Amino acid sequence: MSRSSAKAGTKPRSLLSVSDLSAVDLAGMLERMKSLKPAIERREALSDLRGRVVGLLFEKPSTRTRTSFEVATVRLGGFPVYLAADELQASRGEPIKDTARVLGSYLDVIVGRVFSHETLTAMATFSGVPVLNGLSDLEHPTQVISDLFTISETKGKLRGLTLAFIGDGDNVCNSLLLGASLMGMNAVAACPLGYAPDPDVLRRAEDNAKRSGSTVRVVEDPKEAAVDSDVLYTDVWVSMGEEKERSKRLRAFRGFQINSEMLKLASKDAIVMHCLPAHRGLEITDDVIEGKHSVVWRQAENKLYGAAVALDFVTG
User: Would you say the pTM of this structure is higher than 0.70?
Assistant: First the structure.
């Protein structure tokens, strides 16, 4: 998708939510990753983004998301430009729609890692180029695309498996519920009272489940969620921007740790996932994240291929 085509009236294809994808779209992306991964591993000269410039607008620090998108852009033949939010005029009060219009006239794609999902919505509305959600307070779709690929790669399938997310019903949890239900996986989120997934996201995930023949549940007992699960997934209890709530959150999430006892409740061949960074001793124990059931490091590596397929999707 070029800037010229957007100006001519073709609406750019952005990816702000897993709900922007159909089941066919998502299945196609996972299939595309099967060929992208070995090609990138072999350092093949790919040309999906040849001549295109990808802007990385980051309001939050990042290790994996920033690096994966920068490397994916280069591997696909494009050029990444990192845009630290505190170095832009938006940090001094420029309206985001003004920033979006200008960046859209320079760039071919914008990847945003932002505090507010509304920032991405405005970017997509006013920039005239595809916008990718590299994390917002509502969702983290590119994380979940790579996660589903990791599960499929490890388990050989998605449909019929049960994914148990244990912890905060945060952006990752929201996207997991949407992605799993879209692909026919059963999904259960175990969250303390007051920390459940977004209600609108939950409704959309339940609608997905009706169409795919799967189930979506939210419970308050982590052990109930873990029983016979094929995938145990967790995330940090205190995300960036929530530091003032740390003490409150640590009390609320007591008992929601993925540890060896929790793992015993899952299927014998269950896998353990974490989107990182991990706070060992809080949401997950060291022995589990380093244990034989952990696929955390494969999951982290696959973020590179998830970034590549997301860029390929919005520019294709």
Answer: yes
pLDDT category, 231, cuts 50, 70, 90?
very high
Residue ranges making up the domain that contains 274: 141-300
Residue 21 one-letter amino acid: L
C-alpha span between 13 and 130 (Å, rounded):
5
- Please indicate, yes or no, whether residues 148 and 282 belong to a single structural domain of this protein: yes
Residue 137 to residues 112, 195, 234, 250, 294, Cα–Cα distance (Å): 12, 13, 17, 20, 26
199-215: b (≥16 Cβ within 10 Å) or e: eebbebbbebbeebebe
Which domain CATH number covers 123? 3.40.50.1370
Residue 110 phi/psi, 5-degree rounding, is -120, 125
Helices 296-315/23-41 angle, 10° precision: 110
- Cα→Cα distances 17→31, 102, 121, Å: 19, 24, 10
